[in-house]
Prior knowledge:
Blueprint: H1 2-24, E1 38-44, H2 49-64, E2 73-79, H3 84-96, E3 101-105, H4 107-116, E4 122-125, E5 146-150, H5 155-165, E6 171-177, H6 181-197, E7 200-206, H7 212-220, E8 225-228, H8 232-235, H9 238-247, E9 252-254, H10 257-261, E10 266-269, H11 272-287, E11 298-299, E12 304-307, H12 309-315, H13 321-324, E13 328-329
Parallel strand pairs: 1-2, 1-3, 3-4, 4-5, 5-11, 6-7, 6-8, 8-9, 12-13
Antiparallel strand pairs: 10-12
Helix pairs in contact: 2-11, 3-4, 7-9
The protein binds tryptophan.
Amino acid sequence: MKKKSTVILLVFVMALCGLLAGCGGGDSESGKAEGDQLKIGLVQLVEHPSLDTIRESIIAQMEADGYKDGDNIVIDYQNAQNEQANLKTICQKFVSDGSDLIIAISTPAAQAAFGETQDIPIVFSAVTDPVAAELVKDFNAPGGNITGTSDLVSADKIMELALQITPDIKTIGALYSSSEVNSASVIQDLKTYAKKKGLKVEEAAVTNSSEIQQAAQSLAGKCDAVFSPIDNTVASAISVATDVFNSAKIPFYVGADSMVADGGLATYGINYETLGTETGSMAVEILKGGDTSTMAVKVMDDMKAYVNQSTAKTIGIKIPEAILKDAEDLGE
Ligand code: TRP
């Protein structure tokens, strides 16, 4: 009898310890009481220069607004290495950790976060088409626990630039990932534009970055120029594509400035540092109690042409002065 009650007492004490540890836990590494700090889950699909720039700008802006990692907030940054399964595991953990806010960089990351919670506020960054991705009902009235910034680009504008630089395009290749909604909507616009202008579109959709080499080679054999939208899979292995196109002297028009810096010929697009900054401000607004359901999705309007003069030289193309005077050269 005595033995039994000792065991019960022991179990009770252990349970109490567990409870106390559970209440105070989670932040033992930083040595702070949890009550002081807000938990932010930050999920990024993959590390490529554009998404990295965005992440750094978000964190910098939050800090400028008084939300500093390790101080009054704890940012749990996770990179999913372009794997859908990783995105799900990461976002599930953010939810079970009781995050106060989730920041999701890219369309697939935002979709994964939204798939796990309809309660915790989510701010997304660089989601090309949040309506097509079924994250918000309307840019101006998101309607749920999610809002953020969009890097909507115009395939028309990029193609107009392409036709100014290389007017003889008859067949345009489209290199993109079949699993990214962000690419699908831009490719749809490209097709509409091409039809209007009497251009032929040759598509090469890849399912992962290991297929880019072959897809690029097949396009190089049958196109006058190639276009890639703001596609994460292409962006994360872009040197494979630029090697093929630049040595075949095929102009490669891309969806983002980072892809031009990485060897693409030109784009007409937004500034991703600004987009990150705007995302950081929205995150702060939400931490201060802002309502995601009525906070409009922000679209960037500081578009301009980005060119790579070193690529132009490699493929033997002269970019017209009229374009150069307003463009930023990201070559070298
Ligand atoms: N817009 C992309 C998306 O919706 C993410 C992205 C941001 C991106 N910058 C980029 C993709 C640059 C390719 C290149 O997921």
